[in-house]
Amino acid sequence: EAQVTQNPRYLITVTGKKLTVTCSQNMNHEYMSWYRQDPGLGLRQIYYSMNVEVTDKGDVPEGYKVSRKEKRNFPLILESPSPNQTSLYFCASVGAGEDEQFFGPGTRLTVL
Amino acid sequence: AQSVSQHNHHVILSEAASLELGCNYSYGGTVNLFWYVQYPGQHLQLLLKYFSGDPLVKGIKGFEAEFIKSKFSFNLRKPSVQWSDTAEYFCAVNGGYNKLIFGAGTRLAVHP
Question: Residue B51 and residue A104: Cβ atoms within 8 Å?
Answer without folding.
Answer: no
